[in-house]
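= Paired protein data =
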Amino acid sequence: MTYFVDDKGFYGEFGGAYIPEILHKCVHDLQDAYLPIMESDDFKREYHSLLQDYVGRPSPLYYAKRMSEKYGCRLYLKREDLNHTGAHKINNAIGQALLARRMGKTHIIAETGAGQHGVATATACALLGMDCKVFMGKTDIERQHTNVERMRMLGAEVCPVTTGNMTLSDACSEAIRYWCCHPSDTFYVVGSTMGPHPYPDLVARMQSIISEELKWQLREKTGRDYPDCLIACIGGGSNAAGTIYHYADNEHVRIILAEAGGSGIDSGRTAATLHCGSVGILHGSRMLVMQDEDGQIEEAYSISAGLDYPGVGPMHCNMVTKGRSKVFAINDDEAIRAGYELTRLEGIIPAIESAHAVAALSKVKFNADDVVVLTVSGRGDKDIETYLKYGDDI
């Protein structure tokens, strides 16, 4: 069984391109252009040169000795937090900015929640001399102030979004509205494996550098090119897609995903879409969505600004529905504790998004010789105030 996109833009029953007429031409132009450009020698040469010399790839694969002893396995951490800008988001942002330039686009827009994709996009635009506008919910602007100032310092315009609960989903909606009004010269750099086809596939391919590196790094460290288990946090699904991309069809590899449980999946304050969602259409794609009985999108909640999205990318919806991936809902308090645990046992402060993945370790039974890879998708500098606010009793 294959879990990749088909020629119509679907992953099983999920995916597609549900778009307003005004965006029809620019989305179809992207569908026609992205693979020929990405597979060209010129693009590959420039992209991989920037990944190496600018982003700092390959990111290390670190054996976490003390955490391994605690959880009874051989735990390796894929250190995306050590990339330039502090997260995996830069892999995709630079790639899409290069793609946009080759398509003749001059104006870049993006959405952001925790600010990491916004910072990455602003960074790529500063590097390439492109105009940049980032949409960010007012709630997220207040809790991610440092990233907001980083974006502005890089020359991006940060546009506060005051609709809904003023977080990631609302930022996506506002970016799409802007795109509808400026379709000809604007390229929307989508930050996760969501949106109309080809974005879920495009972002997954950009992030697949993570698992591409894992294959040779694991061979060097363990003598084989695959782990027994992969673990990643999931909101829209970009770091998870990159982590599992080259292992999706390898049934020897368990896939564990950690989504944001918020205050609990039955609390009404959650972002656990894979537990609580039903099939619907959001931001141009058919996916699992948190919605009421009338199909109205429900507000997602999480302590993590990067995981409080009321949908999940179609690649992951398909894999979870088919039983390929196992998903745990990690509550806020569990994520905070896990973040402190990694910090104190390994000296690595993870983003709160990544701390959800760390918390999943306690929910899985391992054998002593199991090779487990956990992707630390971002560093926790941006979340220090949140850790301090909620970690007093830890």
